[in-house]
Structure formats: structure tokens, C-alpha cells
Amino acid sequence: GAVVSQHPSWVICKSGTSVKIECRSLDFQATTMFWYRQFPKQSLMLMATSNEGSKATYEQGVEKDKFLINHASLTLSTLTVTSAHPEDSSFYICSASSSGVAYEQYFGPGTRLTVT
Amino acid sequence: GQSLEQPSEVTAVEGAIVQINCTYQTSGFYGLSWYQQHDGGAPTFLSYNALDGLEETGRFSSFLSRSDSYGYLLLQELQMKDSASYFCAVRAGGYQKVTFGTGTKLQVIP
Question: Of A14, A96, B70, B105, which has the fewest Cβ atoms less than 10 A away?
């Protein structure tokens, strides 16, 4: 149980284009989803927390107009990187919590984004 | 804000025991979690401590001392597959907010 999928697993895009990453909870309803980014050999940095049906809460320093998050249903959240630039290249990981209690998060496999 | 400190690397022998420490500075502390991440993969949840003491789950145990703002992950009977990065994470500063430590890369050698 508690499986989270992400799509795509990797993507290469040109600078200036937008990329959408999907995060799905496959066998449970995720009241809360989290989006992280991780640079090589570094820790996970929380970007935003999203609750189904409401606006995402962004961490300080994360541009909400650049990283658009939508949590349209209890099983799907999307992250859209708009007008991507090479510095946005990173490993993006989503996680989901079924009860809204963040201590047990189930992570997706991650999406490696490369912006050329 | 929250800050967590972990050793960056630890090397241990197969079959041995290793302890990975984590110290933290937070406001509004709820609990400490541990995650394992293999290279190129996503983190997987290992344990969570909200109260002082030791929690045991198979070969892995996790300890918390709230008064000392300190916790550790104990891995017993190390196996080669335990080679991975281990992150402590605090739930603090907001009920849903989780902040990850810098991670400890564990290398298990024969």
C-alpha cells in the first residue's frame, strides 16, 4: 500500500518552455501533498505544501508564479515549471500524506528535469 | 527556522552496528523522522519519534531526546544493501511542515 507515482520520470526541455510534472497517490487518498527539489548530493528542500481544493503554501524563496502547483483531487497534484531555465534543472520529488500528518510521507520516484 | 546537523559520511563493516546522529534546532517541535534514500531513488520512510525514547523496527531503531534536541538512527546487522543516504527530518514550525537534514551517506564495506 501507500504507492505514489510521478510522471514523467525524466524530462529534457528547452529554456523558456514549461514542464508539467504529475504526482498521483495510487492506493490512498492524499489530503496533503508536498513538492521537494533536490540537487545532487544535497538534501531535500521543501518547495510547497498543497491541500486538496485549496491554494498551495509555498516556502520562503520559492516563486509561486514560476512553480505552479495544483491539487485538483485527492489523488493528483501537479507541478508546472513555467519558463524553465537551466538553473531549474534538478530532481523534483513529490510526497503524499493520507491523514495530513506530515510525519509519514510516501514519496514518488522523482522526476529529473534538465533544461538546456 | 529549523536547522539539522548530521555527519556527512559514515563507513561501517557488513554485519556491524552503526549509529547516525542528528542534532536539531527548531521552534514548535512535533517529532523526528528518518528516511533512507538510495542513489537516484526517492526517500523511503523508516521511523518517527514524537516522544523521548527508543523505537525499534526490525534491524533499525531510532532514538529521541527532546531535552537535548538530539536523535539517532541505529542500524544493526548491517547489510550491503543498507548503503544509502539517511536523512533525519523534523516536523516543526507548523503541523505539516517537515524540514530535512543534510543527510548522511552510509557506506557498508565487506
Answer: A14
pLDDT at A100: 54
Please give the C-alpha separations between residue B83 and each of A80, B17, B38, B79, B86, in angstroms, as whole numbers: 33, 13, 7, 8, 9
From the number of C-beta atoms within 10 Å of its C-beta (0-12, 13-18, 19+), residue B65 rates as middle
Residue B77 Cα, gap to closest chain A Cα (Å): 25
A85 close to A115: Cβ distance less than 8 angstroms: yes
Burial class of residue B93 in the structure, from the number of CB atoms within 10 Å of its CB (0-12 exposed, 13-18 middle, 19+ buried): middle
Residues of B with CB below 8 A from A50's CB?
none
CB A22 within 8 A of CB A114: no
Span B2-54, pLDDT tens digits? 789 999 999 999 999 999 999 999 888 889 999 999 988 889 889 989 999 99
Q: Which of A42, A105, A106, A112 to mutate to test the interface with B (most CBs of B within 10 A)?
A: A105
Cell matching residue B60: 533499525
Q: Where are the alpha helices (DSSP H) in chain A?
A: none
With residue B84 as reference, give the H or E element that holds it.
Answer: strand B84-92
pLDDT in tens, A84-93: 999 999 999 9
Higher pLDDT, B96 or A64: A64
Q: Which of B2, B96, B107 to mutate to test the interface with A (most CBs of A within 10 A)?
A: B96
Q: In this structure, how many other beta carbons lie within 10 angstroms of the beta carbon of residue A45?
A: 16
